[in-house]
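Q: My labmate handed me this sequence with no annotations at all. I'd like to see what the chain might look like in three dimensions before we decide whether it's worth expressing. Could you predict it?
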Amino acid sequence: MRRAVRREWLAPLVVALLAAVTSLPSLYNRFVYDDVPVIVQNDLVHRLSAVPAIWRSSYWPVGMLYRPLTIQAFNLEWVLGGERARVFHGMSILLAALTAVLVWRLARRLLPPSGAAVAAALFAVHPVHVEAVANVVGQSELLAAIFTLLAVERYLAWREAAALGPGHRLALAGLTLLAICSKETGYVAPLLLGIAELGRFRSPRRAVVPVFLWQAGAIVAALAIRFSVLGTLAGEAPAPSIAGLGPLTRAAGMLTIVPEWARLLFWPAHLQGEYGPPAVSLTGAPLGSYLLGVALLVGALVLLAWGWYREKTMAMGLLWMAAALLPVSNLLAPTGILLAERTLLLPSVGAVLVAAIIAVRLASLLRAMPVGLRVAAAAGIALIVAAGEQSAERATVWKTQSVFFAHLVDDAPRTYRAHYVASRFYYGEKRYPEALEEARAALALYQRDAHVHEQLGQVLRTMGRCQEAVPVLAEGVRLSPRETTVRSRLIECMLAGGDTAGARSVAADAVRAGLPEFAATLRRLGPPPPSR
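A: Here is what I predict for the chain of 532 residues:
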């Protein structure tokens, strides 16, 4: 009995250690990239007395995301460690280990012990998770995944035991609500419960109807809380390359993202901190990108149909990926991203289930060939070790701001946003020549984002080159007439160059467009001189 208990605890212990050791290099990282505005510059994180305000505030200092549980976690970590990033990174490592153990617990209910171990080990070392672990703000992904995984695993356990009474229904709804309060990914938890039900049980389902009514109640409650705090159900502003695209155009364009999802989930040999035009785009991509996306979707549907009748866990893994990708698919509504590695944490659970099923099937075929089985096992171990090494090395990319932004532009040289955010960083560090170089690179790659024009114009203005900045800023105003910052920069540069009439005209256009904040500027500039 004792030996059986030890064996039962050995697998999750090994999985937790794999995740922790793989993530350990991130313990020495500083606050990097989005950590700075969300944690370092966010007063709500710094005061324990701010707890009530956290639950009445948006996630970003300015924005339409609502993740109070994540901000609450940051608040407690700050109280424990102050400005010491190591406390935050230590918590991320613990959360990563816990997530891997929960993947094992879920897989253990769907697969034989060896298959569950393979799935959890692959999850623990998966390189695509690095962004969610090495960058502190990724705790939102980890927390949402933890509550979602726990909800699905508990649902399977209680469903098998016919123990879905009122208390357990309430507990499942509570886990869903906690997942949503961690990140918007949590809204897919009821879908994943539905996939678990359809994939594992054939008995009459009237008994589970109350469970899903409670789930619906959790969704309604989350939306009501969000609306009461933010005054809207809309999410963040769409990415410039997505804004204005209709549903059908977005759906067709996302076909070009499907190959990237497949690559990152099943063979993440190359990773980068930003994805976007022109390297990755919903419009104007080569025909081959769309065709490859279609081919992968058709292949997935064929595999799903086969799995539904021959291997339900395979089908569940595929459906899990689809459901978990839904919030970032730009199908329901345009989002602020085309693709981000951190958003693949929860979808990767489905990917490792599929990979584990393939491994179990392969082992079954090779059982009569001891040499082949040993070779396959050695190859699997080598793959896990290689993935772990890649993840550990990748974690150091987030070591400092300077290291991160240097890697960012090297990893994504044809992604305009990589150069744009690097320019903003260098500008903040007063490294103006580098800021200018990166802003020019961003604009050369993509001309439809007003923020890039604003950034380049501001760098030029700071360097005393307003004559060059004016046409750049004017194009930014044309692209985004209601964007106040780029318009203010344009007025300032015009005045610096002695063009008071032009500045007055720009301010007057703003007032006519319904931007009252420019009325004071217009009054300060005074009336135009009388015509002769």
